């Protein structure tokens, strides 16, 4: 899986979304939005909109799949959720654990992910943009690989995943 635009970071000259809830103008705190955000928070791993919709329906929520998608995109735009794409292009979401944007190193085989710090990258992106006269700059970084668990065969044989 790879990062998408919803994982962008902005240089310090870009305005932060207003308010402590990080809502953008026109975004309302609806029952559906609260339900989707709560379901994301209960599941710390990235999940598809379809899987999240199934969980919400199993909990008795009356919410359509289109509403789940629309809400997930709104949460990502507001900085409340992160989004990644798998190799097939399907998007997966999870609640953003902090107000700061994150980069993730994700296993291509099992989906395991771990946040990675990237201060040098953040500085480079902002410095480059500033030197070229750009403002309100965002960037996307895609980090994928094979985690140690998937790389190391458990039965002593060579892994068939490569």
Structural class, please?
alpha+beta
In total, how many beta strands?
9
**Which geometry do the CA atoms define?**
flat
C-alpha end-to-end distance: 16 Å
Number of helices: 5
Strand content bin:
15-25%
What is the arithmetic mean of pLDDT? 78
Strand order of the largest sheet: 1-4-5-3
Flag low-confidence runs.
1-8, 13-23, 158-162
Major sheet: 4 strands, antiparallel
SSE sequence, one letter per element? EEHEHHEEEEHEEH
Query: What is the share of helical residues?
Result: 25-40%
Protein model, in words:
The protein has 162 residues and is α+β, with helices and mostly antiparallel strands. It is built from five helices and nine strands; from the N terminus they run ββαβααββββαββα. The radius of gyration is 18 Å and the shape is flat. Residues 1-8, 13-23 and 158-162 have low confidence and may be disordered.
Q: Which key terms come to mind for this protein?
A:
162 residues, alpha+beta, four-stranded antiparallel beta sheet, three-stranded mixed beta sheet, 32% helix, flat, disordered C terminus
């Amino acid at each position: 899986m790879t990062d998408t635009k919803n994982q962008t970071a902005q240089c310090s000259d870009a305005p932060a979304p207003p308010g402590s809830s990080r809502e953008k103008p026109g975004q309302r705190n609806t029952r559906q939005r609260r339900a989707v955000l709560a379901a994301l928070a209960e599941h710390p791993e990235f999940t598809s909109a379809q899987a999240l919709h199934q969980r919400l329906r199993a909990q008795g929520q009356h919410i359509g799949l289109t509403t789940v998608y629309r809400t997930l995109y709104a949460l990502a735009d507001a900085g409340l959720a992160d989004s990644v794409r798998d190799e097939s292009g399907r998007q997966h979401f999870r609640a953003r654990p902090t107000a700061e944007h994150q980069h993730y190193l994700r296993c291509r085989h099992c989906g395991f992910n771990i946040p990675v710090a990237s201060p040098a990258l953040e500085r480079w992106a902002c410095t480059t943009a500033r030197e070229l006269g750009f403002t309100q700059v965002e960037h996307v970084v895609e980090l994928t690989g094979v985690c140690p668990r998937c790389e190391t065969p458990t039965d002593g044989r060579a892994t068939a995943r490569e």
